[in-house]
From TrEMBL:
Function: Catalyzes the reduction of the glycolytic intermediate dihydroxyacetone phosphate (DHAP) to sn-glycerol 3-phosphate (G3P), the key precursor for phospholipid synthesis.
Species per Swiss-Prot/TrEMBL record: Novosphingobium cyanobacteriorum
Full protein name: Glycerol-3-phosphate dehydrogenase [NAD(P)+]
Active site, UniProt feature: K195 (proton acceptor)
Pathway where this protein functions: Membrane lipid metabolism; glycerophospholipid metabolism
Pfam families: NAD_Gly3P_dh_C (PF07479), NAD_Gly3P_dh_N (PF01210)
Principal location: cytoplasm
Subcellular location: Cytoplasm
SUPFAM superfamilies: 6-phosphogluconate dehydrogenase C-terminal domain-like (SSF48179), NAD(P)-binding Rossmann-fold domains (SSF51735)
InterPro entries recorded: 6-PGluconate_DH-like_C_sf (IPR008927), 6PGD_dom2 (IPR013328), G3P_DH_NAD-dep (IPR006168), G3P_DH_NAD-dep_C (IPR006109), G3P_DH_NAD-dep_N (IPR011128), NAD(P)-bd_dom_sf (IPR036291)
Length: 339
């Protein structure tokens, strides 16, 4: 199916969260002159965006378009028909719960699973914003590339089906930003959440200098884990092998531009997770998702040895080389990823 071009440039879109990804999405949406209202949690950042047209905290590379306006007020977002929610996964419930709004479209852009509850973002949003029409935007998307206008394709999974897709694709697509339709909300969410954990593992391989063969093996066996978990949770196989699953897994497992990959690399080089994370203002979602994902998999009898290994490393149970040795000494078995 196809989208219908863009809606009138007059309709303002709201972006909630002015980290790297929210700012990049605002920049992309404003690239055709559309007005974008961007909520930032940090008051100084609101001022900087409005006065200097830049986000020195989270996306210093971008000169922000003049039609982006920042606000510190979540109430300002309540009147907008389309909101992109781009706060980190662990903060979605509290931020969304503070927006006094009923109905409208909510496009979920965080990649993660809520610790403590095990909820995917759409489940969080259904509770925090009952009555909203939910969609998930996910795929291989480094923020700095999207902000620079480089070509990018994403999955836009719409719980409201094709009618919602027509509405949202018209508002969100740009010449260099290409959404693909899906009705598989859970599949799009699971791919994005699981790949972050696997990217930490790929970073460890890099940090330990285990080579390109090992990284390719890890991507492939990691994808098998994503498939086992995703299919058990009701995801469609096509979504997992698409942009929001395999596509994002390949991107995030291939570059130190990924915060998850670079966290893993530091772990492989001998650092502790606590020391790496305490020195960062940015989020590595995989560190929060890994334990809850492992728990969900264990509860369901789903084998995810790479995810378990990441949890062991994050918790400092053993040094990286020992965790890898233990993965490599598992019994030989059939490759069938679903077996
Ligand atoms: N950066 C990317 O390239 C990229 C791409 C796609 C998806 N994502 C996803 O987008 C989400 C946001 O990531 P990001 O890269 O924009 O963040 P970031 O690491 O650039 O910035 C951290 C963000 O967390 C916010 N924050 C910190 N404490 C908070 C709190 N208590 N309540 C609410 N917000 C709080 C900050 O205000 C800031 O917006 C994540 O789920 C990430 O996986 C990121
Ligand atoms: O920097 P990361 O690891 O959070 O990855 C960013 C995006 O999710 C890549 O698609």
């Amino acid at each position: 199916m196809t989208g219908n071009g863009r809606m009138g440039a007059g309709m303002q879109i709201g972006v909630v969260g002015a980290g790297a990804w929210g700012t990049a999405l605002a920049q992309m949406l404003a690239s055709d002159g559309r007005e974008v209202l961007l909520w930032a949690r940090e008051p100084d950042l609101v001022d900087q965006i409005n006065r200097e047209r830049r986000n020195g905290l989270f996306l210093p590379s971008a000169d922000l378009h003049p039609t982006i306006r920042a606000t510190a007020s979540l109430a300002d977002m309540a009147v907008l028909p389309i909101l992109l929610l781009v706060t980190p996964a662990q903060h979605l419930a509290s931020v969304l719960g503070q927006i006094p709004r009923s109905g409208g479209d909510i496009v979920l852009c965080a990649k993660g699973i809520e610790a403590g509850t095990g909820r995917l973002m759409a489940d969080v949003a259904r509770d925090a914003a009952p009555g909203a029409d939910l969609a998930v935007l996910s795929g291989p998307t480094f923020a700095h590339e999207v902000a620079a206008g480089l070509p990018t394709a994403v999955t836009l999974a719409c719980a409201g089906g094709e009618a919602q897709w027509q509405r949202l694709s018209a508002a969100i697509a740009r010449p260099a930003f290409r959404p693909y339709y899906s009705d598989d909300v859970a599949g799009a969410e699971i791919g994005g959440a699981v790949k972050n954990v696997l990217a930490i593992a790929c970073g460890v391989v890099d940090g330990l200098r285990l080579g390109q063969n090992a990284r390719a093996a890890l991507i492939s066996r990691g994808f098998a884990e994503m498939q086992r978990f995703g299919l058990a949770m009701g995801a469609q196989a096509e979504t997992l092998s698409g942009l929001s699953g395999l596509g994002d897994l390949v991107l995030t497992c291939s570059s130190t531009s990924s915060r998850n990959f670079s966290l893993g690399k530091a772990l492989g080089e001998g650092a502790s997770a606590a020391s790496v994370l305490s020195n960062r203002a940015t989020v590595a979602e995989g560190a929060f998702t890994a334990p809850v994902l492992a728990g969900l998999a264990r509860d369901r009898g789903i084998s995810m040895p790479i995810v378990e290994a990441v949890v062991a490393l994050l918790e400092g149970q053993a040094p990286a080389h020992k965790v890898v040795a233990s993965l490599l000494s598992r019994p030989l078995r059939a490759e069938n990823p679903l077996g």
